[in-house]
Write a structure and sequence with these properties.
The structure is a single chain. The protein has about 750 residues and is α+β, with helices and mostly antiparallel strands. Among the domains are: about 1-50, no CATH class; about 485-595, Methane Monooxygenase Hydroxylase, Chain G, domain 1 (Up-down Bundle), CATH 1.20.58.530. The protein is about 45% helix and about 10% strand. It contains 29 helices and 16 strands. The protein has a seven-stranded mixed sheet, sandwiched between helices. A three-stranded antiparallel sheet has the order 13-14-15, with helices on one face. Helix 9 packs across helix 11. The longest helix has about 30 residues, at about 485-515. Keywords: Actin-binding, ATP-binding, Cell projection, Cytoplasm, Cytoskeleton, Motor protein, Myosin, Nucleotide-binding, Repeat.
């Protein structure tokens, strides 16, 4: 406070010291001085060479102050902001933010801790560097700009656990180490993954404060737009992702956001034509219907105002009533129009999208009747042409040509073209295949268009930038009836669980061995054998499915027989007395699958006749949808494919014969629509998994485990059994153990010396 005169000039000394400290404390990466810069600071220069004498004088000064009894008490406990509760000192469980700090470690203590925190609306808890997020099933006011500021470049222990802290950790790692990052959000359906992904994007756009405000606004509109087209109401979740989404946010080397890219996988197209009881079609169909109703434009798009189209009708008979009376549908339609506008879609493009969507709804209403002539009994025709004419008009194609493509098909044998007629059932299948293809390709086109509109400016060198990828994929599902879609979703979740295990357990323990650290091995549930059962060639489940799909005479029953004969392991079983059914012991529990329509869904055939007709459309967008080839993941190829960092090979520890990554090749010729060998849903699925993994392994992973506290979507209700089951199958107890025994800081030696 009053340094002796020998110790530099007091006021000048204090001013210099304060300025130096303030420079050291700058958090902003772009403004923070480097170490070499700080060494040139006047304060450091003026004390240079006087270390010993200054130390001695300061020691005397401190002693003097102590004798005066004015020593300030140093406080060691952490200061928490905005704690909604007081810790009860009598409680033997310490209410800590990190499960790693629990003294007694077992399922009971973990559950007790989570339940207590949840009751206090503390939905976030750490396990070392992993975040557990319990779905609060209510809106919490902890995501405002004030909270964004709290979680900006600070030590994690400065604030209570929060999803913003995870986003900040990924961002800081990216800027500090110039390395891509990847945030993996996992959990079962309805656990809150999609909402978590929104919050991560919200915070990353705040952290990467680009001067370009319009770019930030565009990025924030991406999720709501693709979710309107890719999400739907299921039996367990009103806003369930029916596709896998990997969003890459691109940053400059200094950490300013400069663009975004979205990859979509495995859209559940079958939902367009049929939904299970109590479920709905994709959100967009209801939004657009309500929007057009309120704009009095239903007749322009040939939509009825009394009886809903077949594709969105359901057993309740309330669909039209909801469309007309629910405010939320109308509001969502306006929000979607706003998204299109902000991201940069033209009015003409949006008009084309609406025409294709309403064209799909009209296509679903086309009905067929059998005509028996003296030669043939399996001929079909369209007795009532109204729906046919409506669909053809909206898709800008000829009504007669469409009818012909639906009710007959061309077969080329020995150079001759023969026209064969379709039965009523076959014609209905062709109609539905056309609707699915229209929707799937439209969805792909919207994603590609977003990527074009959000790519970094030409004048920015995008190669030197870095990415934070955010994975939001459909969660593990187990319904009363599980079909082909659930199987794909659950295999994808097995793969994410395997990736988690590799990072948290396998690679960690390999690291201990390589550095000669004496560490006790943590046992964990390795689901590798189960993944092999699904994915290996030629005897894995997906390979067997593809093989059976190539036999025209094969049935779903011969498929299940084939599974039973070849998949001889503890993970597969066949229940007695139910022919078309088989069971799988997944990492998250037993699931019974109904194999009916497996082969049909896997073949996913779209007759060439339909493609030819749709290519004649006067709607430029529709023409484009069926002239562009499909990629190996079943998506519409982008006009020009750029090879990204993701298509580079995997790091050595993950590529040791386990996952072979194929870079995305674009098929040259659009014959994929007719070649059955080339294209099955299983092969698209396999390539999608590879592509997704190749993107993920490039970055340093950050895991967010979403937990569903109850099945009734009730706020503040904590089901002990449900949470315990999720903690068990995600290996949280083992994770706590390995994080507790582990090492929190892993800095490379050269990096450490440099810093």
């Amino acid at each position: 406070r009053n340094p002796p005169p020998t110790l530099l000039h007091p006021e000048k000394w204090c001013r210099g010291f304060n300025h130096f400290i303030s420079q050291c404390l700058i958090k902003d990466f772009e403004k923070r001085p480097s170490v070499t810069h700080l060494l040139e600071h006047p304060f450091i220069k003026q004390v240079h060479g006087k270390d010993m004498s200054l130390q001695k004088q300061l020691a005397e000064l401190i002693q003097e102050q102590q004798q005066l009894g004015s020593i300030a008490k140093t406080r060691h406990e952490r200061v928490h902001t905005r704690r909604p509760y007081h810790v009860d000192r009598a409680d033997k469980y310490s209410l800590d933010d990190d499960l790693v700090n629990l003294e007694v470690l077992n399922e009971d203590t973990i559950i007790h801790q989570l339940q207590k925190r949840y009751a206090d609306l503390q939905i976030y808890t750490y396990v070392g560097d992993i975040l557990i997020a319990l779905n609060p099933f209510q809106n919490l006011s902890i995501y405002s700009p004030q909270f964004s500021k709290l979680y900006h470049g600070v030590k994690r222990s400065s604030n209570p656990p929060h999803i913003f802290a995870s986003a900040d950790a990924a961002y800081q790692s990216m800027v500090t180490f110039s390395k891509d990052q990847c945030i993996i959000i996992s959990g079962e359906s309805g656990a809150g993954k999609t909402e978590s992904a929104h919050l991560i994007v919200q915070h990353l756009t705040f952290l990467g404060k680009a001067n370009n405000r319009t770019l930030r606004e565009k990025i924030l509109q991406v999720n709501p737009l693709v979710e309107a087209f890719g999400n739907a109401c299921t039996a367990i979740n009103d806003n369930s992702s029916r596709f896998g989404k990997y969003l890459e946010m691109m940053f400059t080397p200094t950490g300013a956001v400069m663009g975004a890219k979205i990859s979509e996988y495995l859209l559940e197209k079958s939902r367009v034509i049929k939904q299970a009881v109590g479920e709905k079609n994709f959100h967009i169909f209801y939004y657009i219907y309500a929007g057009l109703y309120h704009q009095k434009k239903l007749s322009e798009y040939r939509l009825p105002d009394k009886k809903p189209p077949r594709y969105i009708d359901n057993e309740t008979g309330r669909v039209m009533h909801d469309i007309v009376t629910k405010d939320s549908y109308g509001r969502q339609f306006e929000a979607i129009q706003h998204c299109f506008r902000i991201i940069g879609f033209t009015d003409e493009e949006v008009y084309s999208v609406y025409r294709i969507l309403t064209g799909i709804l009209n296509t679903g209403n086309i009905e067929f009747a059998a005509i028996s002539s003296q030669h043939q009994t399996d001929k079909s025709a369209v007795p009532n042409p109204e729906a046919l004419d409506n669909a053809a008009a909206l898709l800008s194609i000829g009504s007669e040509e469409l009818q012909e493509a639906l009710t007959s098909h061309c077969v080329v044998t020995r150079g001759e073209t023969i026209i064969r007629t379709n039965t009523v059932d076959k014609a209905a299948d062709v109609r539905d295949a056309m609707s699915k293809a229209l929707y799937g390709r439209l969805f792909s086109w919207i994603v590609n268009r977003i990527n074009t509109l959000l790519q970094p400016d030409k004048n920015i060198n995008a190669e030197s930038g870095m990415n934070v990828g955010i994975l939001d994929i459909f969660g593990f599902e187990n319904f009363a009836r599980n079909s082909f879609e659930q199987l794909c979703i659950n295999i994808a979740n097995e793969q994410i669980q395997f990736y988690f295990n590799q990072h948290i357990f396998a690679l960690e323990q390999m690291e201990y061995q390589s550095e000669g650290i004496d560490a006790t091995t943590v046992e964990y549930e390795d689901n590798r054998p189960l993944l092999d059962m699904f994915l290996q060639k030629p005897m894995g489940l997906l390979s067997l499915l593809d093989e059976e799909s190539r036999f025209p005479q094969a049935t779903d029953l011969t498929l299940v027989d084939k599974f039973e004969d070849n998949l001889r392991c503890k993970y597969f079983w066949r229940p007695k007395g139910v022919e078309l059914s088989f069971g799988i012991q997944h990492y998250a529990g037993k699931v019974l699958y109904d194999a009916s329509a497996f082969l049909e869904k896997n073949r996913d055939t779209l007759p060439a006749d339909i493609v030819v007709v749709l290519r004649t459309s006067e709607n430029k967008l529709l023409q484009q949808l069926f002239s562009s080839p499909l990629t190996k993941t079943g998506n519409l190829a982008q006009a020009r494919a750029r090879v990204t960092a993701a298509s580079r090979s995997l790091p050595p520890q993950l590529s040791a014969g386990r996952i072979k990554v194929d870079t995305m090749e674009v098929m040259r010729h659009p014959e994929e629509t007719t070649n059955m060998k080339r294209q099955t849903m299983a092969s698209y699925f396999r390539y999608s998994l590879m592509d997704l993994l190749s993107k993920m392994v490039v970055g340093q992973p950050h895991f967010i485990r979403c937990i569903k506290p109850n099945d009734d979507r009730e706020a503040l209700m904590f089901s002990h059994e449900r949470v315990l089951l999720q903690l068990r199958y995600t290996g949280i107890l083992e994770t706590v153990k390995i994080r507790q025994k582990g090492y929190s800081h892993r800095i490379l030696f050269e990096e450490f010396v440099k810093r």
